[in-house]
Design brief:
This protein has 13 helices and 14 strands. With 448 residues, it is of the alpha/beta class. It folds into two domains: 11-76 and 340-447, Aspartate Aminotransferase, domain 1 (Alpha-Beta Complex); 78-332, Type I PLP-dependent aspartate aminotransferase-like (Major domain) (Aspartate Aminotransferase, domain 2), CATH 3.40.640. Helix 3 runs antiparallel to helix 10 (320-362), helix 4 (99-111) runs parallel beside helix 10 and helix 12 crosses helix 13 (430-447). The radius of gyration is 22 Å and the shape is globular. It binds pyridoxal-5'-phosphate. Pyridoxal-5'-phosphate (PLP) binds next to helix 5.
């Protein structure tokens, strides 16, 4: 086993964070990076290369968060640096038609099975916003089926039960308590949202029976990635596809996390599902802001200018530099008949198997859930965390945060939030897995 890397004081990080808080709320630009998660203060990162990042105090970490999954090729991959630098040198963005956006679209549509056409935007949130608007325009219906614990970005109608809460507050699976995640959203927005537990066949049948004919869309993450990592039960996504088709409801597969990570065509390829619309972000941009909505031409044609069009503007849509990066990144992913995906899978599976052994050796009650490039650790006496309700009731989030803080002190960079998940990039390999297992072993001893 390699030597565990002990990180030293974070004095400069702490000082910097104090200053940042004078101008930036919580010292950051998104609460998932601030002190509420990284209590008492986040690690302030300065540079990265491959799988390694360095903080302001010069501490070095192996990164398993990878910008919440955006960095599919790790930090500063030479091909990505080249594509971005060349684009930048010629002019970062023209907001015009460019060869770069066609190069990105051609690769994208070749890889994603349901993509006859694609519309690029700037974030996953923009993509899910647009998908819902397209679905409403197409069906002439307003309602949306949204599942408990799924996160689809911060657009108003999606912000219902995307955070965890004490089990006593959740209501029953038949009548889930509806808990908005944000102030400032008019209550009437949620009148159009039907909320249901996920991974629950019985509740799915019930909800589709009651509301199916008035739903414009059902949106789902194919693997639940915002309560850790929760795969779908065998046949669940197929059932959802069957019932949505039966009721004329568009199925939006939110592949913002899973896309360009699990397979060339994401989870729709992996699970053999044909969504009506699918949304992408994160890994697609290899570290640059991106979102995309894909689907059949018949649906995306609604974006064409004219009467009854679906409006979607955006100064930065199809950003030239990002499009060149996307094309370069997808080229890397497609090379050698998708060898990158096999590597992602093998590296992730090795990390998962290794962590399971570490916990077993220490007699720690924990499950390591997921497969391949995405997984999460839950400290629990249960044999699995199968849905939002399990996550709220049975995952010891405080213990997980202590575990991750112990890892941060041992040279592993990860978010202490149990709701996130571990990310493998194409840059990760055996030595990174070995570093993780060594640090986890030492962290387990320290926690006991
Ligand atoms: C499944 C899913 N959809 C959509 C989004 C929103 O993406 P973005 O943060 O790029 O707006 C996220 C972000 O974490 C996500 O996990």
């Amino acid at each position: 086993m390699p030597q565990t890397l002990i990180t030293h004081r974070r004095t400069r990080s702490e000082q910097w964070y104090q200053r940042a808080q004078e101008l930036l709320i919580e010292g950051v630009n998104s609460p998932s990076r601030g002190s509420s998660v990284f209590s008492p203060a986040p690690v302030v990162l300065e540079r990265g290369r491959g799988t390694q990042v360095w903080d302001l105090d010069g501490n070095q970490y192996t990164d398993f968060m990878m910008s919440f999954g955006a960095l599919i090729h790790g930090h500063a991959h030479p091909a990505i640096v080249k594509a971005a630098s060349e684009a930048l040198a010629q002019g970062s963005h023209f907001a015009s038609s460019t060869p770069a956006e066609l190069a990105a679209a051609e690769r994208f549509c070749r890889m994603v099975p349901s993509a006859e056409a694609v519309r690029f935007c700037n974030t996953g949130t923009e993509a899910t916003m647009l998908a819902l608007r397209l679905a409403r325009a197409h069906t002439g219906r307003n309602k949306l089926l949204k599942f408990e614990g799924h996160y689809h970005g911060w657009y108003d109608p999606y912000l219902l039960n995307a955070h965890s809460h004490p089990p006593g507050k959740l209501g029953t699976p038949q009548a889930p308590a509806r808990i908005p995640d944000s102030a400032g959203i008019p209550a009437r927005v949620f009148d159009d949202v039907v909320l249901a537990p996920w991974n629950d066949f019985e509740q799915l049948e019930r909800v589709m029976g009651e509301h199916g004919d008035s739903l414009a869309a059902a949106i789902t993450e194919p693997i639940m990635a915002n309560m850790g990592c929760i795969p779908p039960r065998e046949g669940y996504l197929q059932k959802l596809r069957e019932l949505t088709s039966r009721h004329g409801v568009l199925l939006i597969l939110d592949e913002v996390v899973t896309g360009f990570r699990y397979a060339p065509g994401g989870c729709q390829e992996l699970f053999g599902i044909t969504p009506d619309l699918s949304t992408f972000g994160k890994a697609l941009g290899a570290g640059f802001p991106i979102g995309a909505v894909a689907g059949p031409r018949s649906l995306l044609e609604a974006l064409r200018w004219g009467d009854n069009m679906v409006l979607h503007y955006g100064t930065f849509n199809g950003h030239r530099m990002t499009m060149q990066v996307v094309a370069a990144s997808l080229e890397l992913l497609e090379a050698h008949r998708g060898a990158a995906f096999r590597r992602l899978q093998a590296t992730g599976d090795a990390a998962i198997a290794g962590l399971r052994q570490v916990f077993a050796r220490h007699g720690t009650a924990a499950v390591v859930q997921g497969f391949g490039p995405m997984f999460q650790v839950y400290f629990t006496e249960r044999d699995a965390i199968r849905d939002y309700r399990d996550y709220c009731a049975y995952a010891d989030k405080a213990k997980y945060a202590r575990f991750v803080h112990a890892l941060l002190e041992r040279g592993i960079y990860m978010s202490p939030s149990n709701g996130l998940h571990w990310i493998i990039s194409t840059a990760h390999g055996e030595s990174d897995v070995a570093a993780l297992l060594s640090a986890a072993d030492s962290a387990c001893s320290a926690l006991q």
